[in-house]
Amino acid sequence: MRCPYCSNLDTQVKDSRPTEDSNSIRRRRICADCGGRFTTFERVQLRDLIVVKKSGRKVVFEREKLARSVNTALRKRSVESERVERMISGIVRQLESLGEVEIASEQIGAYVMDGLKGLDDVAFVRFASVYKNFSAAEDFVSFLAALDDDDQR
User: Fold this and answer.
1) What pairs with residue 72 in β-bridges?
2) Count of structural domains within the chain
3) What is the pTM of this model?
4) Which of 8, 10, 66, 100 is 20 to 30 Å from 128 at the Cα level?
5) What pairs with residue 24 in β-bridges?
6) Are residues 75 and 55 in the same domain?
7) What is the pLDDT of residues 109-128, one digit of tens each?
8) Whether residue 81 sits in one domain with residue 65
9) Three-class SS of residue 2?
């Protein structure tokens, strides 16, 4: 594993432990060259997933990209990182268990919306504004009104 500080390829694992949800291994590493310490995570990947964009373009699914978009929606929100990680892992497991190699980006967005709805209301609305392509304040108002109607049923 390459050192993130000096790019040396000679790093050593000092400690390995399963994460709390036991879906990955947390490894503490040290660089033999600069002495820098860092953490890596190892996860099982059942198959390479392909995301089919609205335009029809196909790209390889990247867990890190999913995590970035979730964390952007959660910026400055007080949600425990372990809950966020569990949600992201759950979404990835759902995608892998579909049995399909190609997955529509809308499907991923729907899973993220479901996950954020249970995690943080503000992040849910933030993500929805991008996912549903809100273009005016009225879009927020109608979205929130529809949510309120669903909650009252």
Assistant:
1) none
2) 2
3) 0.67
4) 100
5) 43
6) yes
7) 999 999 999 899 899 989 98
8) yes
9) coil
